[in-house]
Automatic annotation (TrEMBL):
Biased composition (Acidic residues): 12-21
GO biological process: base-excision repair, AP site formation
Keywords: DNA damage, DNA repair, Hydrolase
Originating organism: Penicillium rubens (strain ATCC 28089 / DSM 1075 / NRRL 1951 / Wisconsin 54-1255)
Protein name: Pc22g01220 protein
Length: 343
């Protein structure tokens, strides 16, 4: 039996080690005349109890090992799980008969029958009569010797249909004319053709084709309008030409210099004298003032910044009108009376 031969030497070693343990010596002076000796460790009794318990444990291990070798464990076969057959479920179907709402309404007479009255047909609103998309009713107002000629990009759709400059309600043109002092009252677009007689201020555009937005114009269209504008200025000779929008000055610069204007070369306000428009036949040309766009769609500048640029032009116009004698009290009264007559 191999298991007993392994355990027996180990027990002998434990007994030999226990025999070397000596009893603890007792000092009668410090142990109450030896009374505490009964609580001291007894090496012999402990050794015998330990030897007996270890022998018992070893014998149990040997017996368990012999039983396992004599009777090997065989796995029990798995049982198949049987599922009882399910009985077919039968549901009773109840036939439901309903009557449609229309049948009930037909069988039950209504207390009062209403007759339908025919809804009057509103005739469609006729379209607003106006020019084709490529034409505009707006006309130039450029009499000779104007103090100021305002040059826009092109007419908007509403301007092209009505024939009044800057007619869209979101446009700031008429507001800026008044806040800058160019006009004495805040005019409406219908006063477009009164400005030359009232303030010696005219209006034209670099492109005549109306569009919803100036960005819909091609660069070729803008450049083609530059020589036409130069000819108008040379023929009527206004004192100052104001370009209403940066894109107009960019087109003029491209045609004159053969390239686009650089960022550091552009500035709002008065331009160099060498850039005067319409020069020729002994005339030095009209100085150019570049103003901000007045379109409500352009959000590149704040309203205060636009007003500051236009105020610079307005101060010059007011001064020039005074020099011409067009800004006295008598002249103002005549202007207002003329305004009411034209209205």
């Amino acid at each position: 039996m191999p298991a007993s031969t392994e355990v027996q030497p180990k027990l002998e070693e434990d007994e030999t080690a226990l025999e070397t343990v000596e009893d603890v010596p007792v000092n009668k002076m410090t142990s109450f005349n030896g009374r505490l000796q009964q609580f001291l460790h007894n090496g012999t009794a402990t050794r015998e109890a330990l030897s007996t318990s270890r022998t018992t444990i070893s014998q149990r291990r040997i017996n368990t090992t012999n039983e396992r070798q004599a009777d090997p464990i065989t796995p029990s076969p798995r049982r198949k799980r049987t599922v009882p057959p399910t009985a077919p479920i039968t549901t009773a179907t109840h036939q439901r008969t309903t009557r449609s709402k229309s049948t009930l309404m037909a069988t039950s007479p209504s207390p009062s029958k209403r007759k339908r009255t025919a809804t009057p047909q509103i005739p469609p609103t006729p379209p607003i009569a106006g020019p084709p998309a490529t034409e505009s009713l707006l006309r130039d107002t450029i009499p000779p010797n104007l103090i100021l000629l305002l040059v826009g990009v092109n007419p908007g759709i509403m301007t092209g249909v009505t024939g009044y400059a800057y007619a869209h309600p979101s446009n700031l043109f008429w507001k800026l004319l008044y806040s800058s002092g160019i006009t004495s009252v805040r005019h409406i677009p219908a006063d477009t053709y009164k400005l030359p007689a009232l303030y010696s201020v005219g209006n034209t555009n670099i492109v005549e084709r109306p569009t919803r937005d100036a960005s819909m114009l091609s660069r070729a269209e803008m450049d083609a309008g530059v020589p036409v504008l130069e000819a108008k200025v040379a023929a009527q000779r206004p004192e100052v030409v104001c370009l209403v929008g940066k894109s107009i000055w960019e087109a003029v610069w491209r045609v004159r210099h053969g390239r686009g204007i650089r960022k550091e070369e552009f500035r709002y306000g008065w331009q160099a004298e060498t850039e005067n428009m319409g020069r020729g036949d002994g005339w030095a040309g009209a100085p150019v003032f570049v103003a901000t766009t007045t379109s409500g769609l352009a959000a590149g500048m704040k309203p205060a910044e636009k007003e500051a640029v236009w105020a610079e032009l307005g101060s010059w116009v007011v001064k020039r009108r005074q020099e011409r004698g067009l800004d006295s009290v008598v002249v103002k009264e005549e202007i207002m009376s003329l305004y009411h007559k034209l209205s």
